[in-house]
Amino acid sequence: MKSWFHNSAAKSAALELRDVPEPRLQAGELLVRVRAAALNRGEFLARRSLPATTPDKPAGIECAGEVMRLGAGVEGYAPGERVMGRASMAFSEYAVMRVGEAIRMPQRLTWEAAAGASITYLVAYDMLWPGGALQAGEWLLINGASSGVGVAALQLGKLLGARVIGTSGSAEKLQRLQALGLDFGLACRNQGFEKQVLEITGGRGVDLVVNNVGGSVFAECLRVLAYRGRLATVGHLDGVGSAELDLLAQHAKRLHLFGVSNKLRSAGELAECVAGFKRDVLPTIADGRVRPVIDRTYPFAELPLALAYMEASGHVGKIVITL
Hints:
- This protein has two domains: 2-117 and 292-322, Alpha-Beta Complex (Quinone Oxidoreductase, Chain A, domain 1), CATH 3.90.180; 121-259, Medium-chain alcohol dehydrogenases, catalytic domain (Quinone Oxidoreductase, Chain A, domain 1, Alpha-Beta Complex), CATH 3.90.180.
- With 323 residues, the chain is of the alpha/beta class.
- α3 packs across α9.
- The protein is globular.
- It has helices spanning 41-48, 111-115, 119-131, 148-159, 171-178, 194-200, 218-223, 247-253, 267-280, 282-286, 303-311; strands spanning 2-7, 14-19, 29-38, 57-58, 62-70, 82-86, 94-98, 102-104, 139-143, 163-168, 184-187, 206-211, 225-233, 256-259, 294-299, 318-322.
């Protein structure tokens, strides 16, 4: 089968299309015929931070497609069913999903929308429901609001009844996000939002911050949090992986700081998150209340062009390849 790989030996992060055998299933896995797969910036940022001696790895971490075969012990799925979700080898003709992370596609979704409705919406669910405990009427600030995770957090924040402030370096992107319910858009690249956020909230601050930018805005994110505010660190688009922590502010305002990553999670923890997503969010995608935002699609063979478009940062929402 055809499969895109991260070529770690290249001087810059590179993708290489290879012919490889179909993956062998382990117990509890599904083999999926990929119809569409979505790009995630975090995957490529992670590969670039690794040494050139790192073994090459199949690319792609989320897709939508048809179940082809079942691994040992899999129950409740059958060949031909349409599924979406986190997967290994997603930028391939065939990918592998763990049964606990597979999600049956809502009937109304296209392959492209289903591919873009998985990881970012799962991450947003993780931040806003169990992590951030966001409530109706609370204030939500999203740094980097036009990214895939940012758009999903905006949509799910509005679903919960929150008032949402978003930042972006592009006023045009912020205008596009107003159609999704963005209450206030702040045109600033990374830093410089504190004064406006406090003015908007009457000096109170926000209840939850989604930090999709990284260390360069961490201190400012703390300063705009209200009493008992929560700060979710989910991305490092600025490449800054460390920041100073104002312990006095954390102590006085009883702040809750948490990271959003699946790197160390067990299969059971991931399955638990997916189960919550199916319960609380999937019905709203199925009935159209939440519509995955797909900025642009590319053919499978043009994945490097799709990556270049993502790195140019002109998109709002998800970029998808189709097979």
